[in-house]
Amino acid sequence: MLNANEKAAIQNIAKGQAKAAAREAARAPRAAYQVPEQPEWTQERGVDGLRINSSRFFAVPTTGRKNARKFDVIDLNAGEFVCQVAKNEVRGWLLRAAA
Q1: pTM of the predicted model, to two decimals?
Q2: Is the pLDDT of residue 13 over 90?
């Protein structure tokens, strides 16, 4: 037979386990979040530029240097110029286009 102190201790343990389970459940969606792929410097047809793995869009710096102010975005499938974006917009543009 359990006395009152032992019963209270068991109830506190159960409450603690319930709180821990709730914290774990709240943490699960954050753990499932995956960071989208980031544009990386690659070489396509002998030209250096930014591209997300198998995306059809390829961003080439206008001056040929990685720190160029403007980037030309090219559609590799069609082989056409798409647009020109600033260096602080190019990564976001590629991410939106790849999604």
Answers
A1: 0.62
A2: no
